[in-house]
Write a structure and sequence with these properties.
By secondary structure, this protein is mostly helical. The protein has 50 helices and two strands. A hairpin with a 6-residue loop joins β1 and β2. α13 packs antiparallel against α14 and α24 runs parallel beside α26.
Length: 902
């Protein structure tokens, strides 16, 4: 580097490199300027100056200088390397790789460039090239441990586990007998465990176990050693040894559920569905009775039997398990037991057990059969559990009654108000739920979790501005709105985006959903630094696990929800292109009288003047920060309301981009193929639409959405004209060949298919609604379609006793049916009848204006409703009013909207 310069300037060039490495950017620029005064066309100096300016956030100047330097010295590996570093800083990894390869053509043995290239290849998963680069590094520097390990990991990632093992053994052959020294024992132990895991992955189980035992003295992490050993013993079928080892692991950690599961597997007593024979149940009971005596302080050893016990034995075990948690006041008890509600009959038994505890506590102050009086909060936590139980069963009136009784008993416990807000949300009153959540938040202003729950309830009630103010209470001063984004608060952005989508603000909705996509891009980018760090620190097992996690990153629910939200927004933009906010404002201004127009224009001029001042001030600050070598402040959002996102030219093209990501990473999700159907139907891509229908039928042939898509597709195909072009004839040939694959059709007409679907699912509201919608599509018979919906019966299923009927219909399904009647069937009278009917089934629903909802209590007719319903039980009426009157008054909520947060 700098070889073409005189000695003085050559030393200055070395100073530039050192200044870049030590982040002394001003010093580096000064040295570069000194060289360029004498040698203004020196390519390497121009490139290094550009690289430093890039670190000072002066990107345009940086690229200009680097390109100029490269132009002046095309045969300098330094210029090409710097150009690659510039691309790498902008995440243009493919372009950076090209630059590094050009640099290596000039200096093929440059260790630094090869190392940088290998990092990019690992990041981009160019695994074959990654192997080649790591092998070249090992050849050039075989005495460096990191090169051996890097080559082995590259082979492993390239699905060559056996070669990776050979490389690690060759590396071990270069070590002395007394290796490792004390300061490297942990790293060496990790390498040995990684080698054993490689042997296991390659199916060499016996060899892996022998290797593990042979190197036991050199492995520092004894817990990982035991866990690896028991995994190998189990795979080899050495269950007796595995059983003993699992018992040793339980002695180390008796609350680890995986150890209990492994112990059951070794004893031949594990089934994922918990369906055991009487003999197996007897052995399991004896096993956990023995373990309970040994680990009497462990909660896991008492909780696990509840999964496989039945009947009276389950009742006894549940009673024993629940009592100490109620006495200690553990709020998460119901969450712990919630999975048991998926087992037939266990929810009813839990209710009976807790009701007996409640009755005994109220009458005697003791648990049944006990003599010691329990503390007063025990009754409150019992009522707290019952409220959550009834909420789970859909008995919202009883749930509210129990939670109000608990609040009356101890009105200072925050968890009570949080659960009450959740009950109201499930009952269909998100406004009252938000009010209750806000009351819980105000009881402890330092509790971030309660604040977050309150924000989520507000977003579900579409109170976005209020939710944002509340969320910002826990952000740092300064750029508060950006702070939520910087913290990657994805749950907030998703909930906010869903709220904007419900309200029809597609620009803001897209802005929130795209922010989540940006977070996932950042998470993918964050792995870059670990490619060198993990090889240096020898955390190899965790490194490989992290890479595999990154490969399936976009299959997780947050990204799936964000991508689906983006697609729905683009579909709406395609279906009904909306005017921009500027056009809307111009229309509204044109309707104003002249005097108001004049005032509005004056306000706009003042706002524009303020904005210009802020921009000028920001530019001056940016310039000052750039000169000082510090990064400038984040730029002002140029599209705060998402208007540019709304004005996209090709909504279906943008939707397709996110659809491809879902198809790649979430192919087993029905929603993925439903969205594919909607996008491709609009694009008139017949074969892609057919593919989406086939996938939906494969995943869930009985789903109402699958039935809708099947009928819509073949109805659309049937309405097409006779094919004329060769392409159309080919498509028709494919359709004819694929039609027999749909067993639902089976040479039936679409009307017959729809009738058969209805006969098979006539007791389901969702399926009846789908059949009615398709009847209207096929036969254009609105009257019969509406009749089919209105004849749906909501048979009241009895849960624990016949005195408390459970509504079979779900609130969201009923709302969807109401929307169907209002929009597609376009019958407002039928929609009104349906709304009235559902208001009886869902009295707390604000959507259906239920008589116990906050929507009615806020209306001027609330008193009339109270008098009309005066014949009802006073206790039920009181519980329905209490969410608004005593806990979370909506007037207080309105006052809260006006607060100013400093």
């Amino acid at each position: 580097m700098g070889a073409s310069l005189p000695p003085k300037e050559s030393n200055l060039f070395k100073l530039i490199v050192k200044s870049y490495e030590t982040k002394q950017y001003k010093k580096g620029v000064k040295a570069a300027d000194s060289i360029l005064k004498k040698f203004p066309d020196h390519g390497e100096t121009l490139s290094m100056k550009g690289l430093i300016l890039n670190c000072m956030n002066r990107k345009s100047e940086a690229y200009e200088l680097v390109k100029q330097g490269l132009k002046n010295d095309l045969k300098s590996h330094v210029c090409w390397h710097v150009y690659g570093l510039l691309y790498r800083s902008d995440r243009e990894y493919r372009e950076a790789i090209k630059c590094y390869r050009n640099a290596l053509k000039i200096d093929p043995d440059n260790i630094e460039i090869l190392r940088d290239l290998s990092l990019l290849q690992a990041q981009m998963r160019d695994l074959e090239d990654f192997v080649e680069t790591r092998q070249q590094l090992l050849t050039l520097k075989p005495n460096h441990r990191m090169n051996w390990i890097g080559f082995a990991v590259a082979q492993h990632l390239n699905s060559s586990g056996s070669k990776a093992i050979d490389i690690l053994e060759a590396y071990e052959g270069t070590l002395e007998d007394d290796y490792p020294p004390d300061n490297e024992s942990c790293e060496h132990g990790e390498m040995l465990l990684y080698k054993v895991s490689l042997l296991e992955e390659c199916g060499l189980i016996e060899r892996a176990l022998k290797e593990l035992h042979r190197k036991e003295s050199k492995i520092v992490d004894k817990l990982s050693y035991k866990e690896q050993e028991v995994s190998l013993l189990e795979k080899l079928g050495h269950f007796d040894e595995g059983e003993e080892l699992y018992k040793k692991l339980l002695y180390m950690n008796p609350d680890n559920y995986r150890y209990y599961e492994g112990l059951q597997r070794c004893m031949g007593l594990y089934k994922s569905n918990n369906q055991y024979s009487p003999d197996e149940l007897e052995r399991l009971e004896a096993l956990y009775a023995s373990l309970r005596q040994q680990y009497n302080r462990s909660s896991a050893v008492k909780r696990i039997p509840l999964d496989f016990l039945c009947g009276e034995k389950f009742r006894t075990a549940a009673d024993i398990y629940i009592r100490p948690f109620l006495a200690k006041g553990v709020p998460s008890l119901f969450s712990d037991l919630a999975p048991l509600y998926d087992h037939a009959g266990k929810g009813d038994i839990l209710e009976q057990v807790v009701l007996e505890l409640e009755s005994s506590l109220k009458s005697t102050g003791c648990f049944p059969g006990g003599t010691d009086r329990e503390s007063p909060p025990t009754l409150m936590w019992t009522l707290f559990f019952l409220a959550q139980h009834y909420d789970r069963c859909g008995h919202y009136d009883l749930a509210l009654r129990k939670i109000d009784e608990a609040i009356e008993h101890t009105p200072t416990v925050i968890d009570l108000y949080s659960v009450k807000s959740r009950i109201l949300k499930h009952a269909g009153d998100p406004i009252a739920a938000a009010s209750l959540a806000d009351e819980a938040r105000r009881m402890d202003l330092a509790d971030r979790y309660v604040n977050s729950k309150c924000v989520k309830h507000m977003l579900q009630a579409d109170q976005v501005e209020l939710a944002e103010k509340t969320a910002l209470l826990f952000t740092k001063d300064g750029e508060q709105h950006n702070n939520l984004h910087d913290m990657q608060c994805m749950w907030y952005e998703l909930a906010s985006g869903e709220s904007y989508l419900r309200q029809g603000d597609l620009g803001q909705a897209l802005k929130k959903f795209l922010a989540v996509e940006k977070h996932y891009a950042d998470i993918t980018e964050d792995q870059f630094d670990f490619h060198s760090y993990c090889l240096r620190k020898m955390t190899l097992r965790t490194y490989v696990e992290m890479l595999r996690f990154q490969d399936r990153l976009h299959s997780f629910s947050y990204f799936r929800k964000a991508a689906a939200g983006c697609i729905r927004c683009y579909l709406k933009l395609y279906d009904s292109p909306s005017k921009s906010s500027i056009e809307k404002e111009e229309e509204e201004v044109s309707k104003l009288p002249p005097s108001q127009k004049k005032k509005l224009r004056q306000k706009q001029r003042k706002a524009e003047a303020r904005a210009k001042k802020e921009v000028v001030k920001g530019d001056s600050n940016d310039a000052a920060s750039s000169k000082s070598g510090k990064r400038k402040m984040k730029p002002v959002d140029p599209d705060p309301h998402g208007e540019k996102l709304r004005q996209v030219e090709d909504p279906l093209g943008e939707a397709t981009r996110y659809l491809k990501l879902l198809q790649k990473h979430s192919p087993e999700s029905l929603e993925t193929h439903l969205l594919s159907f909607e996008v491709n139907m609009r694009k008139q891509k017949i074969l892609l639409t057919l593919q989406a229908v086939k996938n939906m039928v494969r995943l869930d042939a009985h789903n109402p959405d699958t039935h809708r898509c099947l009928i819509r597709f073949f109805h659309q195909v049937g309405s097409l004209g006779t094919p004329s072009s060769d392409a159309e004839k080919l498509i028709w040939a494919v359709l004819e060949a694929e039609r027999p694959a749909f067993s639902q059709l089976n040479e039936r007409s679409l009307s017959e298919v729809n009738t058969l679907f209805l006969e098979n699912h006539q007791d389901s509201l969702r399926h009846r609604a789908a059949a009615a919608e398709m009847m209207f599509l096929i036969e254009s018979n609105k009257k019969e379609a509406i009749k089919l919906i209105e004849e749906s019966s909501n048979d009241l299923a009895t849960a624990c006793d016949e005195a408390r009927p459970t509504v079979k219909w779900r609130l969201n399904d009923c709302i969807a049916v109401h929307n169907l009647l209002e929009t597609i069937l376009d019958d407002h009278e039928a929609a009104a009848r349906w709304k009235t009917r559902c208001a009886e089934y869902f009295p707390y629903s604000t959507y259906f204006l239920g008589k116990l909802s906050s929507a009615v209590s806020m209306s001027p007719h609330s008193q009339n409703h109270e008098s009309e319903n005066g014949s009802q039980s006073s206790s039920v009426t009181n519980t329905s009013r209490s969410p608004l009157s005593s806990n979370g008054n909506l007037e207080q909520l309105q006052k809260f909207q006006d607060i100013v947060i400093h």
